[in-house]
Amino acid sequence: METTASVHTTTVASLSEANRSNILQYLYHHGISSRAQIAKALGLTPAAITKITARLIEAGALEETGDIEGRKNRRSIGLSLDATRFHVVGVKFARSLVQIGVFDLAGALLGLDNLPPVTDGTIGETIRDIHRRVNLLLDRDPRIVAIGMAVPGPYLREVGRIAVVSGMQGWRKVNFITEFTHAFRVPVFVEHDARAGALAHYLFDRESGGDLAYYLVGEGVGLGVIDHGRLFNGAIGAATEIGHVSIDVDGRLCDCGNRGCLERYCSTPAIHAMLVEDGQVVPDAAAMSHTQACRALFAKAHDGDERALAMVRSVGRYVGYGCVTIMNAFNPRRVVIGDIVAEAGEPMLREVRRTVADRAIPELVDSTEILLSGLDADAAVAGAAAVAVTQFLERPSLFFDVSGAS
Amino acid sequence: METTASVHTTTVASLSEANRSNILQYLYHHGISSRAQIAKALGLTPAAITKITARLIEAGALEETGDIEGRKNRRSIGLSLDATRFHVVGVKFARSLVQIGVFDLAGALLGLDNLPPVTDGTIGETIRDIHRRVNLLLDRDPRIVAIGMAVPGPYLREVGRIAVVSGMQGWRKVNFITEFTHAFRVPVFVEHDARAGALAHYLFDRESGGDLAYYLVGEGVGLGVIDHGRLFNGAIGAATEIGHVSIDVDGRLCDCGNRGCLERYCSTPAIHAMLVEDGQVVPDAAAMSHTQACRALFAKAHDGDERALAMVRSVGRYVGYGCVTIMNAFNPRRVVIGDIVAEAGEPMLREVRRTVADRAIPELVDSTEILLSGLDADAAVAGAAAVAVTQFLERPSLFFDVSGAS
């Protein structure tokens, strides 16, 4: 068990690394800046900034960019973290869908690979395929500095395993740490998919701010919470599992052991089951995949079919119940709803907002923005890339020889 | 809206203050230590430690304690933060109960005052009484350096108001910031009661560790979460409102606007209502206060009355549902259940653990401790004191003249 001792020592274990990271993050978020601007913003002395940035420039992390205009029209030299000089690989594991993308540090997509659909029987084969494809990318692109992976949660980060994967428990047998950590020439970082999505919005969307929840409603229902610029993980990395928070303690049984889990009411498998049972709105739903069935429903609702619209609104109500819980539990400034179910669009979002207006504390209703993600579901692989970018910014000594810096 | 810019700048705004605070916290948690031990633990240079501690000694925050034994039997001078030299006042506002206590920094109770019971009509009078009594304490005890207040949540910290107080909305009209912030010779800090309870366990109980949830089940139901040594507040301070998280979206209506709020099933007013409806287990329940009725029930269960035991178990089940949600949402290492309902003791706790074993993810069941608070309900005023102690440790420049330190 963690003691207060280790809490305090790890927090400030390496002030040098923290200073380096703060400088990289400042340049990442603010663009070209002078040493004086950085020193002022970070509360560091000019001497410290000069010393640390000299090492970072020497190590190849930063570069000088010539004169920029400073205070009182004095010219000063700008520093830059060029986001196009470093690439990362993002691997997104959905249950049946694995995608591999290459991105630059700013989140620009440089290439995307869709793997063949995965079933419980082909997980081993898929893992081998990922090794092969990622190695190929690394051989071809020397700018790649890290690999991020996004996996369905709850992901036990210390163990390397996913604890529950409703409907596809085969993934539980994969140990992501032993399988991937030392498999490539660059470091690998694994994160829960909804947290990866939160990081993607935090890093790649300038509007997001530092108090943000990414509410993933897709094949599973997940949540990533960024509080004052930091991901909320919990003691063993299993926090913010909104999909397994019960909305009805006497409700539907879930694979996790709980009853009435939110995931059982508004994930794509839950919607698919509803469509099969209904039999009318999407008559051939039984023959479709979860995603296909949901997209067929959303298309019909989009065309104005009243029954389809009513079903979308009913889904929106459940997404809204989850949203009320997110607000009462985590109080973010912004809730971004993403993944497949977000494709239902405005009619769903309207119902979420109505449910929130009815049920959340008025002060929270007024101070919380609820919107749909700008990233489409396929692009959620950007979250995996954001996991790698986060580590690059937070742990520069893993990527550069900064020995001697302070 | 907070931008990423302000997130980064405030985090490292004052490295000097952070260093001072880290030194105070280290000494607070570890007792007498040498400069070398502190430097090593905090990753600071010996020169920096010498400079900062010199200022803190000069300002009266720390003192040297003579030789202690160091590495390789070398003697070195010890530094100490003497917890008995500084006192704090804690004011706890429950709905009908206000208590004022004086504590030292280590949480030792030096004096306790119970105010007359409060009703919606006497809130103004109570506020005046608090001013008078606190000023009297300040006059008598020059060691008092700060006042902490614990109020029922959700408390809107930027505004100074409580957003919802089920059953006693009069408290909503009190603005704690304008009422108290500049009212006394020492600074005042206000915190949500369950968070104050979490701080009390974190600071005053060595066993607690840094990943801790304090689950207050009393006149209201609240939660304080400490994650890696930091309180989780949310964007406007309204996070961790477990009492208003729904356990049944079609359930009982709550004052907050939501349905099925946990608070409606296991708070003392909910238990009281159950007892009045039942009419047999505690026949004169209708004439009692919420707390009295609950204590009568617990006493009867303690004496082996089967119906009383069944009711306590039923309450325990609801407390357990909340506990499962706490684990899935916040993943603490330890959940400490406190306040009036915790007085139900072992039969209640057993039912909570059974519910958790049934419904939580096995990995979480194995890695989470659930126990009853060592602090009894009256002593929860210690939480208010812990709010003041936390500020004393985190913001030393508010309490000492440390100008010139770095």
From TrEMBL, chains A, B:
Q: InterPro entries attached here?
A: ArsR-like_HTH (IPR011991), ATPase_NBD (IPR043129), ROK (IPR000600), ROK_cs (IPR049874), WH-like_DNA-bd_sf (IPR036388), WH_DNA-bd_sf (IPR036390)
Name the family: Belongs to the ROK (NagC/XylR) family.
| The protein, known as | ROK family transcriptional regulator
Taxonomic source organism: Bifidobacterium vespertilionis
